[in-house]
Each structure stands twice: as structure tokens, then as C-alpha cells.
Amino acid sequence: MDLDFDIVDLDPVDHPEEGDTAPDFTRPLVNDEFWEDESLASVCADSDRVVLVFHAMDGAFPATYIWNEIRDRAWHEQATVVGVSISTPYEHKQLLEEREIEGDYRLFSDPANGVAQQYSIDMDLDGMAGVEEPRPSVFVLDSDRTIEYAWVAQEWPDFPDYDEVEAHL
């Protein structure tokens, strides 16, 4: 498959770093059966370690690549893994099914991109006036939401160093 796109350098951002407390938020959290409003704080309180993955809208090739890699590496066996994107709960349910990750992973729905704005990782989509999404990012959190690892894309498209993330699990 030949993908034709340009690499775009992204402006620097002042995102949360290691040692910071990750901003809390409440959004619909989608699993394989239903969705309901849940806070990041409650997800963290129920886990020793949480991997918070900000990704492109469902159906975009970066989201597909990221979730295929996370699935293939079975991160859910080492931590609670949740995603965040601008996609709706209906689109999230479809992504969970298509990537064959239902039951192991859950996705927060944030159509207005407010969570990415809280984390200062929001970006405009090239050529789409008034449409933005989070830049690809990964935060590893402890049960108190302390950030143990942070990676935020510096260009688009960009993907995390999966081995480096795993070293923090």
C-alpha cells in the first residue's frame, strides 16, 4: 500500500510532563458492551498503571496503526489502556470491533477535543477549517494520575516508540 502524504512539523506545545499530575476529565468511556461517563481519576484509582493514548479520529490510518501495534504487543496484560479521540461512541465501538480489541481496551469519546485542549496537545487538521483533533500522544500514569512517562508527537504523522512505552509498564 503506497501512502502519499507529507510529513508536517508541529509547533512546540507545553504539555504535561513526567512528574506532573495528569488533568482529570469526564467523558463517555466506550467498551465492547456500552458507554457511560467516567472520569480519568476513577480509571486510575482502579489500576496500578494506566496508559492514556491520544490518537487520530477512528478510521484514519494513524489510529489503525497505533491500535494494531498496541493490540499485537498486548499492553492490556501489563496496564489499563484507554484511548482518547474526537470520534463518537458509535465510531469507537466500530474501532474496537475492527481492531479486535473489544474487551481489552476502552476509548474515551471527546468530539469537541476538549481533553486534548486541557493537555495542550490539540491541533488543527490540515485543510479542514474548524476541525481539530489531538496530536498523537501517550501518557503512562500511576493510580494517582502522576505522569511516569510522556510522549507527544513533534510531527504528523508520528508514532510512539512502543519499546520505550513498554519499558515504563
From TrEMBL:
- Keywords, comma-separated and alphabetical: Redox-active center
Q: Which domain of life is it from?
A: Archaea
The secretion signal range is: none
Q: Which GO terms describe its molecular function?
A: antioxidant activity; oxidoreductase activity
Q: Which InterPro entries match?
A: AhpC/TSA, Thioredoxin-like_sf, Thioredoxin_domain, Tpx_Peroxidase_subfamily
Q: Domain Thioredoxin spans what residues?
A: 16-169
Matches recorded under Pfam families: AhpC-TSA
User: What name goes with this protein?
Assistant: Peroxiredoxin
